[in-house]
Design a protein that fits this description.
The chain is mostly beta strands and 88 residues long. The chain is 10% helix and 43% strand. The protein is built from one helix and ten strands, in the order ββββββββαββ. A four-stranded antiparallel β-sheet has the order 1-2-3-6, covered by helices on one side. The protein has a two-stranded antiparallel sheet with strand order 4-5. The chain has a two-stranded antiparallel ribbon with strand order 7-8. A hairpin with a 7-residue loop joins strand 4 and strand 5. The longest helix is centred in the C-terminal third of the chain and has 9 residues. The relative contact order is 0.18.
Length: 88
């Protein structure tokens, strides 16, 4: 089995999205504290997730949209058939 590749999520520096669609929270300091750190963890699988952005605001985001913006090339045209993305 190939290793999973992790890409950063725009605007949410404490999170990464994996090549299989999993979201990982990185170890980071909790908001408003000096000494409490949140551990690294893989978040529960869902179609939407709540992530805290770099400004401290909680955002409701689509995992599919996060995956597309992180892994697919911006200059190519893609089309969807049978629940798969193909390059045109």
């Amino acid at each position: 089995m190939a290793r999973q590749k992790w890409m950063p999520i725009d605007g949410c520096s404490n999170y990464r999205i994996g090549s299989n669609g999993e979201i990982k929270r990185l170890r980071h300091r909790a908001n408003g504290t000096k000494h409490k750190f949140l551990p690294e963890k893989i978040m529960k699988a869902s179609t939407y997730v709540y992530l805290t952005d770099d400004n401290g605001t909680e955002r409701h985001l689509s995992v599919q949209r996060l995956f597309v913006t992180a892994f697919l090339d911006k200059g190519k045209v893609y089309y969807k058939t049978d629940h798969r993305l193909h390059v045109n």
